[in-house]
From TrEMBL:
Lineage per the UniProt record: Eukaryota, Viridiplantae, Streptophyta, Embryophyta, Tracheophyta
Domain of life per record: Eukaryota
Protein name: Uncharacterized protein
């Protein structure tokens, strides 16, 4: 359940559209493995040319646009009975953790699912140092 639908009546048609529309609410999963942070976004009907993945100043941004139908579909003699599929621009941003290798990000897209892989730097564990306790004679 989205935050929006928990705040408002989920029977509201607008809220239903927000929850279903990838332009308004692009669903993204973020998982962390031992070697990388992996972002998976559902972008049905979009091609890789419609999507942009950018990394800048520790911020991962996924954006794009679902374009209006072809010119033939917008002719005056066409009669639309229902338009429910969302069109327009979308953008999602994620602050990357300090261990992200921002210069080695890779992205792939298959069947409308975008996968962005951000490798992790190996975090050096602090060394354990035993301190010898001196005896003070007084």
């Amino acid at each position: 359940m989205s935050i929006i639908s928990s705040l408002f009546n989920s029977e509201d048609p607008f809220i239903s559209m927000v929850n279903m529309c990838p332009v308004l609410s692009t669903p993204v999963d973020w998982k962390e493995t031992t070697k990388a942070h992996v972002f998976v976004a559902d972008l049905p009907g979009l091609k890789k040319e419609d999507v942009k993945v950018e990394v800048s100043d520790g911020l991962l941004q996924i954006s794009g646009e679902r374009k209006v139908e072809e010119e033939d579909d917008r002719k005056e003699d066409n009669k639309w009975h229902r338009v429910e599929r969302c069109r327009g621009k979308f953008s999602r941003s994620f602050r990357l953790p300090d261990n992200a290798k921002a210069d080695e990000v890779k992205a792939s897209m298959e069947n409308g699912v975008l996968t962005v892989t951000v490798p992790k730097q190996e975090v050096k564990k602090p060394e354990k140092k035993v301190i010898e306790i001196e005896e003070i004679k007084g």
